[in-house]
Amino acid sequence: MRIKSTPIKVQAGRFEFVKLNTARYDWRDTYHLILTLSWPQFGAVILGGYLLINLIFAALYVLGGNCVAELPPGSFTDAFFFSIETLATVGYGHMYPDTFYGHCITTLEIVVGMFGMAVVTGLIFVRFARPTARVLFSNRAVIAPFNGIPTLMLRVANLRHHAMAEAEFRLMLIRTEPIREEAGVRHFYHLALEFEHLIAFPAALTLRHPINQSSPLYGMHAEDLQRTDSRLVASIVCIDTVIQAPVQSAQDYVHDEVLWDHRFVEIYHEEADGRLTVDYGKFHDTEPM
Asked: Which residue among 71, 94, 129 closes a domain?
């Protein structure tokens, strides 16, 4: 039986996929679902859950009659604020449970508050501690001779003010090609880089793919990239040495974001004392050959 649901959009770079006939939510994965919410959505969920719990317990206190001493009979507002004090285990002392029913409800609410506080604290900690990659890719890729060989090049920069470790770089070509059975099928090709691993990644560098006879780009021109709807996907995975956690970032380029016979403007300059300065203001700048 097919599952009917509203279309679900999934974004991967500038690729957008629309999933059909699949469930939008899996309540068994609520923890992951909450972590994927934006901060305003996360705040709304926490506030909504907090208010809902207190409303439920306030209703239970009102239904219990005189179960709480000094609580005005039928006062939902006072019961609500007593619930807030009990959930937080504040205990101001003016109102207190006065019957077996009242003790049972307050005990249950205190247990809910303890577990709820632990869960919310864990969620907030994970959201703050979750590592993010401060990595910048050039907004264009270029193709130009390098050491006499046509070379595909793009820039990547570390925006953190400390060196990343064990950086791994990947570059992939995606294009449409005909096969015997169909007019066009998406094919994926790994583009070999001059280097795909760095022990330390402190600032900015240029990734280079030589377009030799073994390259999937060999013999192609700008119109060929457009005709085959070619796209490039670059990825970096490295370790943030401050939090000792792996981080990942990616960037994709469509065919009209590849500049032919252009090169990147030089951004490195060596000072008299041997230090290297890197001008991030020229990071995206290119010039014709």
From this structure: 129
Question: Do the Cβ atoms of 152 and 143 come closer than 8 Å?
Answer: yes
Q: Which residue type occupies 176?
A: T
Determine the angle formed by the axes of helices 100-129 and 39-63, rounding to 10 degrees: 180
The SS3 call for residue 216 is coil
Asked if 104 and 206 sit in the same domain, the reply is no
Angle, vertex CA 39, rays to CA 18 and CA 240, nearest 5: 90
pTM of the model: 0.73
Q: Is residue 4 over pLDDT 70?
A: no
Domain with 162 in it: what CATH number? 2.60.40.1400
Residue 1 within a domain = no
Domain extent, residue 51, equals 8-129
Q: Tell me the three state secondary structure of residue 287.
A: strand
Q: Are 91 and 61 in contact (CB under 8 A)?
A: no
Do the Cβ atoms of 135 and 249 come closer than 8 Å?
yes
**Adjacent-strand bridge partners of 208:** 153
Q: What per-residue confidence (pLDDT) applies to 13?
A: 64
**What's the distance, CA 127 to chain centroid?**
11
Angle of CA points 192, 267, 209, to nearest 5°: 10
**215 and 238 in one domain?**
yes
